[in-house]
Amino acid sequence: MSADSAVVRPPVTSSGLFAKVSRFRGLLMLALGLLVLLGPYLGMSGYLARTVMLVGILSLLTSGLNIVLGYAGELAVNQVFLYAVGAYVTAYLGTAHGITDVPLIFGIVILAALVIGLVTGIPGLRLGGWSLAMVAFFMVIILPSVVQVLSKYTGGPLGLSTPLPTLFGRDLGDRGVYVLIVATVIIWFALARNLILSAHGNAFLVLRQSPILAESLGISVFRLKLIVYVISAVPCALGGALFAWLDGFIAPDTFTFAMALSVLAASMFGGATSIYGALVGAFLLQYGQQQLTVFAQLELVIYGVFLLAAALVFRNGLTGLFRTLVARARHRGWLPTAPALRAAEQPPTTGLEPIEGRPLSCRDIGKNFGGNQALTGVSIDAAPGRITALIGPNGSGKTTLLNLMCGFYTPSAGSITLGDTTISGLKPFKVARAGVARTFQTPMVARGMTTREFVASGRYSQQKVSMLATVLRLPSFRRGVRADDSEALALLELMGIAQTAGTEVSELPLGTRRLAEVARALAARPQLFLFDEVASGLDPADLDSLERAIRAIRDAGGTVVLVEHNFPLVLKVSDTIHVLSRGELIATGTPEEIQRDARVLEEYTGSSGAETVAGLEADLEVAGTDNEGGR
Ligand SMILES: Nc1ncnc2c1ncn2[C@@H]1O[C@H](COP(=O)(O)OP(=O)(O)OP(=O)(O)O)[C@@H](O)[C@H]1O
């Protein structure tokens, strides 16, 4: 199915207040930004202008933390270090070398941020989680010592004065600095918004919520986290340069641990996963600081209270609270609901474009979990254009074998090949990129994405639209969005759930989520499909859709491996069935052969083969029910 032949992007059907506000939200934000930008020319007081500038600078730092915490899930609170680097580089170049040109300084500062991001991020992210958080804390703690050691350049405890910036040789006065700061903030948030509201932003969401899902989408978790971490350094360093120009003087006591906490508090209070939450949080913190003298005396205590309040009362900050209230109001009918995406007015798609399935071969596979021998000498094959089922009682090793096929486990013995490629031992994201897609026993979906976006995320590793094209909204970005949309909608239609395209995927019922997962797997256009108990929890209508989809994949030439407890489905769709018991392969055959296999009947029913097929089905069905929602 090509993007072009697929379903046309469905029209938005609702009108009214919501649609109008959504359509003009970008314009409203821009108008608000312009109003603030022109503030000094419209009679804004000097005090208010300074507040706006400080809020803007703090929001840049908070935005840096939001990106790394809210989207990469890493508590890297090193924004103040990068802020200091930006400020000192600007001050030093201005005083020692007379370099004050804004684009040049911005270029140097961004480069410095990227280098520091890479140098600290590579080891920090390799160690992961708390180690990275410690590296980040450590960077802030050692800051005064670094300033002292480099006092020849930093002025040590005495600080450095900073000449005013120039733009192409012309001095920027106080108003010019104001415009520069506000314009930088507006541009940064516009670019950040473009990145977050894109396939890359959706990949960030998946990355934070489920590294396992990210890897099975072909995303290198380490690489993407590093990219997010490095990007997050940029606004912090720019904020430092702007602060140096704003105050005209910098000293080590500006870059304190308390400031690091204020950035964390602003992020928590505004909402770490909201694009504009950084502005809300920064405004509250900065305004509070200026208005309440008690703030100066009890700074750390107040930040602590802010953090506690954010953690206990509204975990996604004020913007999250706002979103929840709006959702509730919509639910109760007090506000118009979001525009529903209508299924395309076309008959359901019944076929797929040809898939170049490749043969899967597992040879003498053994898997040992610290003394627990989960698999021993298992050899199975799965051919393109055929459905190969893997059945067996609970604990017989089916999921272990599936996890070996997709790289989540490495075999203790034996090897797995897909066509000519040995995939055993490869990292999961490399196996995914080699052409393997899977679903999970408990569907893995990311919160904050529509079903359409979730299905399109299956295409991410083939994504050819760069982050640069995305933030600048170049034509290639728009082409990518159109292709993603039409492909995702066509696949949702194939699964019979096109009407859910605009619904939050994590809110779908279990059965529909399973079908969305199959559509997501299909979107990756893999050669090998691994379905892990995909039928459990489906009602008859969903089961029909699933059966149709599995057959469509087979008929298109895909290689399908089905781990399943739903025996009627297995019997209906499979070409070959492998039966595992206690980690060993006990039978291989067609559905008819397996139904008559004495060893299989004995394994399932405990008898020597006299039991009926109905008894076997019943046993397998019970096993399926027991297992539902297992992992
Ligand atoms: N990560 C792990 N660590 C230790 N043991 C494991 C691990 N994963 C699986 N096992 C063990 O391997 C054996 C096979 O488990 P597996 O989940 O593959 O069985 P299964 O056939 O998929 O069962 P089910 O139908 O219940 O999903 C079990 O004894 C299980 O306890």
TrEMBL record:
<keyword id="KW-0472">Membrane</keyword>
<keyword id="KW-1133">Transmembrane helix</keyword>
<feature type="transmembrane region" description="Helical">
    <location>
        <begin position="292"/>
        <end position="314"/>
    </location>
</feature>
<feature type="transmembrane region" description="Helical">
    <location>
        <begin position="24"/>
        <end position="42"/>
    </location>
</feature>
<keyword id="KW-0812">Transmembrane</keyword>
<keyword id="KW-0547">Nucleotide-binding</keyword>
<feature type="transmembrane region" description="Helical">
    <location>
        <begin position="132"/>
        <end position="151"/>
    </location>
</feature>
<feature type="transmembrane region" description="Helical">
    <location>
        <begin position="80"/>
        <end position="99"/>
    </location>
</feature>
<dbReference type="InterPro" id="IPR003593">
    <property type="entry name" value="AAA+_ATPase"/>
</dbReference>
<dbReference type="Pfam" id="PF02653">
    <property type="entry name" value="BPD_transp_2"/>
</dbReference>
<dbReference type="GO" id="GO:0005524">
    <property type="term" value="F:ATP binding"/>
</dbReference>
<feature type="domain" description="ABC transporter">
    <location>
        <begin position="360"/>
        <end position="607"/>
    </location>
</feature>
<feature type="transmembrane region" description="Helical">
    <location>
        <begin position="48"/>
        <end position="68"/>
    </location>
</feature>
<dbReference type="InterPro" id="IPR043428">
    <property type="entry name" value="LivM-like"/>
</dbReference>
<keyword id="KW-0813">Transport</keyword>
<dbReference type="InterPro" id="IPR027417">
    <property type="entry name" value="P-loop_NTPase"/>
</dbReference>
<dbReference type="InterPro" id="IPR051120">
    <property type="entry name" value="ABC_AA/LPS_Transport"/>
</dbReference>
<feature type="transmembrane region" description="Helical">
    <location>
        <begin position="226"/>
        <end position="246"/>
    </location>
</feature>
<dbReference type="InterPro" id="IPR001851">
    <property type="entry name" value="ABC_transp_permease"/>
</dbReference>
<feature type="transmembrane region" description="Helical">
    <location>
        <begin position="258"/>
        <end position="285"/>
    </location>
</feature>
<feature type="transmembrane region" description="Helical">
    <location>
        <begin position="177"/>
        <end position="205"/>
    </location>
</feature>
<keyword id="KW-0067">ATP-binding</keyword>
<feature type="transmembrane region" description="Helical">
    <location>
        <begin position="105"/>
        <end position="125"/>
    </location>
</feature>
<protein>
    <submittedName>
        <fullName>Branched-chain amino acid ABC transporter ATP-binding protein/permease</fullName>
    </submittedName>
</protein>
<dbReference type="Pfam" id="PF00005">
    <property type="entry name" value="ABC_tran"/>
</dbReference>
<dbReference type="InterPro" id="IPR003439">
    <property type="entry name" value="ABC_transporter-like_ATP-bd"/>
</dbReference>
<keyword id="KW-1003">Cell membrane</keyword>
